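step=encode ok
step=design start
structure_in=
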């Protein structure tokens, strides 16, 4: 699935994603019901990494900047369209993933997300499906769990929302339709969460 397709599916599954609109090549972009600032991201089956191709424009403040950003991103080789979303507030970034292990079957991955995934490798794995108890146990296994609990005056993250997301992803992985689900980063807030980037591969 392309990112906009993955996010539409996740939204229908009850998972939180930013408000956004996908503009196909040749269409005229408009902020519509979205509120500035916005972020625009190139989309295409042949585009492996948006960041490496310069395919992300952030901090779009008005309609003119939106049109310029979309027009520029459409020029990237392989571009099929541009996903425009409301910019999400800064939160604690985690990764939630699911994959089919050849020996154990569907497994769930959780850990500190964003740029820290490869740097710190603070990730843990669990068997799917998860229930509330096993999801809470999984959260408690990462080394950086204190960041979620509130650290040096920061407010704790909404672990209830995180648990529901882990359970939902684990249920999706046991449905027999998906080879991989990669939600990274997921921004956690004192109330709620948002999936900022999503990749889904079908079987």
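sequence_out=
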């Amino acid at each position: 699935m392309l990112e906009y397709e993955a996010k539409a599916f996740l939204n229908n599954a009850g998972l939180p994603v930013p408000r956004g609109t996908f503009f196909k090549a040749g269409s005229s972009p408009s902020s519509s019901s979205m509120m500035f600032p916005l972020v625009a991201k190139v989309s295409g089956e042949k585009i492996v990494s948006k960041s490496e191709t310069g395919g992300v424009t952030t901090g779009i403040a008005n309609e003119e900047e939106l049109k310029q950003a979309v027009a520029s991103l459409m020029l990237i080789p392989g571009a099929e369209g541009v996903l425009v979303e409301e910019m999400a507030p800064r939160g604690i970034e985690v990764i939630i993933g699911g994959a089919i292990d050849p020996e154990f079957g569907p497994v769930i991955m959780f850990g500190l997300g964003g740029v820290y995934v490869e740097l710190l490798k603070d990730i843990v794995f669990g068997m799917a499906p998860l229930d509330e108890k096993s999801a809470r146990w999984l959260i408690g296994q990462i080394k950086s769990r204190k960041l979620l609990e509130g650290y040096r005056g920061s407010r704790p993250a909404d672990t209830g929302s995180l648990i529901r997301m882990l359970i939902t992803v684990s249920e999706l992985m046991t449905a027999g339709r998906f080879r991989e689900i990669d939600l990274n980063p997921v921004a956690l807030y004192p109330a709620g969460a948002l999936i900022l980037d999503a990749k889904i591969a079908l079987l």
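step=design ok
step=annotate ok -> The CA atoms of residues 130 and 167 lie 5 Å apart.
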